[in-house]
Amino acid sequence: SASRGRLEGGATAQQYEKMAALSSEFGDLVQIKKQLISVISLCKERVNPVCLLISSAPAFGGLRFSLLQEDVEDLDALGLAKSYFDLKEYDRAAYFLRGCRSKKAYFLYMYSRYLSGEKKKDDETVDSLGPLEKGQVRNEALRELRVELSKKHRTGELDGFTLYLYGVVLRKLDLLKEAVDVFVEATHALPLHWGAWLELCNLITNIEMLKSLSLPDCWIRDFFLAHMYTELQMIKEALQKYQSLIEAGFSKSTYIISQIAVAYHNIRDIDQALSLFNELREQDPYRIENMDTFSNLLYVRSMKPELSYLAHNLVEIDKYRVETCCVIGNYYSLRSQHEKAALYFQRALKLNPRCLGAWTLMGHEYMEMKNTSAAIQAYRHAIEVNKRDYRAWYGLGQTYEILKMHFYCLYYYRRAHQLRPNDSRMLVALGECYEKLSQLSEAKKCYWRAYSVGDVERMALLKLAKLHEQLNESDEAAHCYIIYIQDIFSCGELLEHVEVSTALRYLGQYYFKNKRYDEASLCAQRCCDYNDAREEGKALLRQISQVRDQGEASSADVSLPCVFGSLSNNNTPVRRVSPLDLSSVTP
Amino acid sequence: MASVHESLYFNPMMTNGVVHANVFGIKDWVTPYKISVLVLLDEMTISKRMTLLERRRLNKLILPLQQVPPQLHMMVVGELKDMESFFDTLPNPFSDAESEASKTSVVGLFMRHMLLAYNKLSFSQVYKLYTALQRYYDDCLGSQPGPPTAPPVDADMELSEMELTSTEDGAEGKMDKEEPDAGPMQYSELLCPLSQKQAEYFLARQAYLLKNDENKALKPAALQEELNNMLKFNPDFAEAHYLSYLNSMRVQDVFISTHSLLHYFDRLILTGGDGKSNGDEGYGRSLRYAALNLAALHCRFGHYQQAELALQEAIRIAQESNDHVCLQHCLSWLYTLEQMKGSDSSVLTEDSVKMAAHFGLPYLASLGIQSLVQQGATGGKAANMLMDALKDTDILHWKHSLSELIDISLAQTTSIWRMYGKSTMALQCAQVLLNMNSLEQVDFGVQQNNTEAFAVVLCHLAELHAEQGLFGASSEILKHLKERFPPHTQHAKLWMLCDLKIQFERAMNDGKYHLAEPHVAAIAALDQMEGLYRKGLVMKAQNQTTDAYRVLQRLQLLCEKTKCTEMIIRVMLTTAELHWESSGFSTALPLLLQALVLARQHHLQALASETILHLAFSQLMLGVPEQALNILHEAMEPILAHGALLDKGRALLLVAKCQMAVSGGREDRRTGLEQAVQTLDEAAAYFSRMGCKDRLRDTHYLQARLHHALGHTAQRNECALLFRMVDQELPPARANLANRL
């Protein structure tokens, strides 16, 4: 129940974060702040452990809006129950609340019963009577709670909090459709209760469903929508939402910054995400939430010292947190200590078995350790937790690819591709598999599509070009190489791309064959910049000069693709960074 | 679902990232059901020991148990201590070496297991067991007065349990109306745990039924729901995924079946072996079979390209790890695939048979031989070779008790005899299969195995009866088929096609072409070639000669591609008939001769006789009745012995016509005509048995004319009357009726 408590606490904390972000200088936001303060006090009275003693103290009495007659009657019982509740003696709390009539007491009464059932269920699983029975342990209280709550629900006696609880009960009973309705109702009754929104978020599976819901018109809805868009991988829309929220005055909210960073991470805009996370760390140095995502980014960029710093820092703050364990796992993984990494991911899973990322990451570690069967199991677990986890599907595909089952892994890659239609990595993986299976036309389609959706690793075009080369489709191959080279140089990164020389070499030959000696010699010269292609470049240059000596005119066929138009133009030398000037990075 | 995962981590189940279903290697758990078995055993040991001769007394012993043994009752209505004392007083198998329950006997082992398992239970587990026992007892007594020892996974109970779950989920909307307090009662019933063994038994039984008698298995939707339930509780239960694959294959759901199959193998890979061995056992092996099964799946759905790719993969992996058995399985799928694609795979099949025999895989070898026989039969191999091969495999089957293959072999023999036109032999073979006692123990109330072989044989039987004019019997058989193989099951297509064919033939013979026409579309849906052929027939009958010709041409091309000799010959015959319509009797001759050669080559006796009839008719029309009679003599014998009633009648009618033509100008004209009259009488008898009024009319007409020529006025009048009666019933005869066989 620790993780559960954290979830609900997390919702409140996120509300605080929002509040903290509001500064008084925005006049129209004062109202929002007031709303937040009131809802937080409402939450506190009910669940937040800290506030019981204080709330009965007269000093805080002023914050209460209206003490109904019933509330006063129940005050003592409520106080007693609340302290039992805080001590996790749920049955005891429920017992003392059984006769209370106020809504507050009723909620606490039901909530204690729910949590008591959950706790018993967890305890029960250890004492199961057989492996199959193990899964059949249920929260016995759910059924009764549902019956009682549905009665009250029909008569309309439920307030926002009890509606939320009713929704949770329905969800636990797998009555998802009803649960969605109740959560929507809960958001209407108490729009500022973020917990209900979060639950709703877990239940919505696609954009159509989201559109069909009638949600309360409140500023918090924008937060919800942005969150939802991120979940549904509609990153562009999510970013827009967050941007507008920032402009509306939430600029200091660490919550929004973290969400934007996660969104950038999801679309693999690593630099943006990294800078945002760094900003977040400055503003909120003891934050643990989302740090696992940060560590993923550091891992991808192989930033060892930063990752090491982050890991040590987090361990100091709290070493028994899922995020901390994931960060440490990533750290060990980057240091190629995969056993230790897997150990830490396991620890993360012990802390929260529904932590999706850890299952997937553990799968990756097992892959590194060549323990494919364990990897498959880890990925399968990840999929069980969330069917839409494309990383796990992709990981499964990779595992089978390692086992050289190229046809078999197609299915998994396809699933991953379905979930992320615009992710080039799955497309490239699919293409590679098709290539291995000699399904070249499919492979070509995949590579081209991968390039069209924005190739992250810039390998798709090259592979496509090689395919064309293999099929003797020289025009297409040349075309691909040309785009590839343009792409490499236009992005400005002067990374070492070994394959550039291959492309140049091919293009040189291609132009030579087509008697376009100017372009050919240009390519040949560029070839000379690379060690592995130098000899061939020189040979080609010699050939060209030979042919030219014989007086053969270069063909002026305009229909041939000509990329280097810009190079032969006069403006080439004037450009600040010549696209083909790689002399500085040539070893 | 979340609860499962959350709970996993409270258990020390996880080592090396792998969750083991068995925590401490305990396979046996004490369940309420097992307690009742223990009670039974206890009762048995208390009473006198049984000798082999006294087995019958077992029934007497079980009787008190069926009427609720006092011990069990005492436990349930009593307190926890009653159960505890039961386990304390349970006879110790160690104490008494003489008893049936000595420590090494099966019973003793079971009791020891149970005692151990019971002693390992924790405090709260004991109480849980006790409450489970109470519930179990109440359930059995409450729901049915029957024996409480009935296996708890009895199909009915499963069903009722499932319905409870489904109403729980589905009836939410209605819940508002009824009293919600009724809920918790149902809920508590669900808590009766399904033990590992029970679940395994359930899966095994359903799988068996799916294979052997689909009717008895749960309906696809219900089964799927049950499986989903099971998987929800225990996602690691890999076998359920496999059954889900089989189940979705039943309803031709590509998506779910692929998903389930791959999920099964993903799970299997975990449980099999220690995870790292790539050898014969465990992990590497399941990988190979995973690829092979995927190939099989694509094959079944007709995705030939994917199937080929998957198969290549399976073959490659199997080769890399030197798994010959797997390779043989791959090879057998490979030739099946080739065959399905319509290419010649006999070489592959032969290889497969040889290799399978070499590696001692009788099942695969026989399958290969059967496939070879099938190919040989269509390819025109010598009949004696085929029959020899079948006989040899039969010996193999009996030796290895491969009852499934025996059935197939018999069904195949039936089909082959039928194809050769030996209806008597076919009938016999069919009866042999139907009257054979299955080798496999007939289990789960399955009376007979409802496999494809049986469906095939029954279809043949129905057609054979219809051919002999026994339409009542034939429709009885079809009715039986419908019951045994309801329309949604896998083999239903067989009888559907058979039923349609029979109806089509009847309508055509009756001359009711408008009735035959709607059947064409239905037949085409089940079998493209057959449909096209029937379309041609209807068109021809309706005088749409050009259209019919076009259809037949198209069909011929199709047949030549698929090398379907039977159909080619039939198309040739029909084309020849089309030529007759335009009086092109001489043009029909080469076509008929070609057909005759083909039919003889492939030993298709029925078709050969049919071709001879056509030839004779052509000759008759060309004015050489003597020749026609000569060749007719050759065909008469097989037709009379094996042919359908209609063929017999037609042949006799033709003979009569020839006899008339021959005796035209001769002196012994009278004897010739008298012969012809006799022949016609016989033909008329056949036609009336078939109810083929169209031809009956012709026959009566001829009879009347002959009697007139012979001067038998009374008979003439009789025949004329008969003719008139039939003629009134039928639409006016077509002009070119003479141009018909």
Automatic annotation (TrEMBL), chain A:
Pathway connected to this protein: Protein modification; protein ubiquitination
Gene3D superfamilies to which the protein is assigned, alphabetical: Tetratricopeptide repeat domain
PROSITE patterns xrefs: TPR
Keywords (A to Z) from UniProt: Cell cycle, Cell division, Mitosis, Repeat, TPR repeat, Ubl conjugation pathway
GO BP annotations, alphabetical order: anaphase-promoting complex-dependent catabolic process; cell division; positive regulation of mitotic metaphase/anaphase transition; protein ubiquitination
Domain Cdc23: 73-261
Extent of the TPR repeats: 254-287, 322-355, 356-389
Top-level taxonomic group: Eukaryota
InterPro entries: APC8 (IPR007192), TPR-like_helical_dom_sf (IPR011990), TPR_rpt (IPR019734)
Gene Ontology cellular-component terms listed: anaphase-promoting complex
Family: Belongs to the APC8/CDC23 family.
Descriptive protein name: Cyclosome subunit 8
Gene responsible for this protein: CDC23
TrEMBL record, chain B:
Domain of life: Eukaryota
Location relative to the cell: Cytoplasm, Cytoskeleton, Spindle; Nucleus
Pathway assigned to this chain's UniProt record: Protein modification; protein ubiquitination
Record CDD domains: Apc5_N
Domain Anaphase-promoting complex subunit, residue spans: 241-340, 439-481, 579-636
Keywords: Cell cycle, Cell division, Cytoplasm, Cytoskeleton, Mitosis, Nucleus, Phosphoprotein, Repeat, TPR repeat, Ubl conjugation pathway
BP term (GO), one: protein K11-linked ubiquitination
GO CC aspect terms: anaphase-promoting complex; spindle
Residue ranges of every copy of the Anaphase-promoting complex subunit 5 N-terminal domain listed in the record: 30-69, 71-138
InterPro entries, per database record: Apc5, Apc5_dom, Apc5_N, TPR-like_helical_dom_sf
Role description: Component of the anaphase promoting complex/cyclosome (APC/C), a cell cycle-regulated E3 ubiquitin ligase that controls progression through mitosis and the G1 phase of the cell cycle. The APC/C complex acts by mediating ubiquitination and subsequent degradation of target proteins: it mainly mediates the formation of 'Lys-11'-linked polyubiquitin chains and, to a lower extent, the formation of 'Lys-48'- and 'Lys-63'-linked polyubiquitin chains. The APC/C complex catalyzes assembly of branched 'Lys-11'-/'Lys-48'-linked branched ubiquitin chains on target proteins.
Entry similarity comment: Belongs to the APC5 family.
Name of the protein in its database record: Anaphase-promoting complex subunit 5
Species whose genome carries this gene: Scleropages formosus
